[in-house]
Amino acid sequence: MEALIHSHAMGNVVRSGLRQKQKSLPSWLFYDEVGSILFERITTLPEYYLTRMERMLLCRYASAILDHVDRGRSLTVLELGAGSARKTALLLRAALADKRDVSYQPIDISAQSLEDAALHLAEELPALRVQPVLRDFSETPHPASVRLHDDARGQQMLLWLGSSAGNYEQQEAVRILTAAAAGMEKGDHLLIGLDMAPRADGKRTHHLLEAYNDAAGVTAEFNRNLLVRLNRELGAKFRPKQFEHSAHWNAAASRMEMHLVSTVAQSVRIEALEESFFFQRGEFIHTENSHKYTRENGHALLCAAGFPVVAEWHDPDVWYGLFLGERS
Ligand SMILES: C[S@@+](CC[C@H](N)C(=O)[O-])C[C@H]1O[C@@H](n2cnc3c(N)ncnc32)[C@H](O)[C@@H]1O
């Protein structure tokens, strides 16, 4: 099923990405089966504070988040890029503990992640109704705009956790959220997890550099796995060892960028595209952006998506934030 979804899109996306003057590939390409497993490993690395902090916030504030949702009505939780949904289980468990009728719709491009999520949720939270959706959430029309309970509509909460909104320019993130929330009504909620920008008196740039350049080299493997995937699925002839992982801070754009840098001058054939792409030594493919937010920018993002912020939670040093917006 995964192959079917990607086969058409992938060739076009790779062709146009590698034909650009500044070569780039979209970050959803990371998440094949191996990439999804590698991402789970990244979330357990000591340097990768993002997952740890978000889990801590969800653990501590799940019931405060749910205080904003009417307890008397059923709740449908939709999640963009749910991944393994291990952190989300904390919120879902708290919602079920309120004796609510709770449905969960994880939306992800990775079949591996959705299977993982469905399996552990069935075991941990048997009362939860889970309806996984395998698809690209950046495409419209969006599945999350389909109402699950037209007869007796409960409340809806849209989640975008793991700092994944940061993979997009703000305008694009707003476009994705607007499409995803098309079926949502006044009083419904949006919960977003954002990684906060470095500041002179708190998180520093070196903490970010460490998080994306871990000592064990798992992020480097995750980045290079994209080339392994193109070799397998598009008959590309990349030699992944001839591309170096690089992650650096782009202060002007307030984001971490990941690149794959060609260590030699080389030409790479991609059979499925019947095309070869030339790389100068030092030339790179831009593979990911991770935008870091100020509190003001976080508010602006949710507001532009039609969900003004009604509450936010941070760790004491404001490295990470959960922002809750309500449909106005
Ligand atoms: C950074 S991971 C975050 C996973 C999880 N939400 C967490 O917080 O740990 C991004 C997730 O979004 C999924 N994803 C990325 N781009 C996507 C897209 N365009 N459509 C659907 N899912 C996507 C990936 O497969 C992956 O599971």
Describe this structure in words.
The chain has 328 residues and is of the alpha/beta class. The chain is built from nine helices and 13 strands. The protein has two domains: 100 residues, no CATH class; 180 residues, Rossmann fold. Helices cover 35% and strands 23% of the residues. Strands 1, 2, 3, 4, 5, 6, 12 and 13 form an eight-stranded mixed sheet that branches. It has a three-stranded antiparallel sheet with strand order 7-8-11, with helices on one face. Strands 9-10 form a two-stranded antiparallel sheet. Strand 2, helix 5 and strand 3 form a beta-alpha-beta unit. Helix 2 runs antiparallel to helix 8 and helix 3 packs parallel to helix 4. Bound molecules: S-adenosylmethionine. The site of S-adenosylmethionine has 19 residues, from loops.
What can be said about this structure in brief?
The chain has 328 residues and is α/β, with parallel strands linked by helices. Helix content is 35%, strand content 23%. Strand 5 (155-160), helix 6 (170-180) and strand 6 (189-195) form a beta-alpha-beta unit.
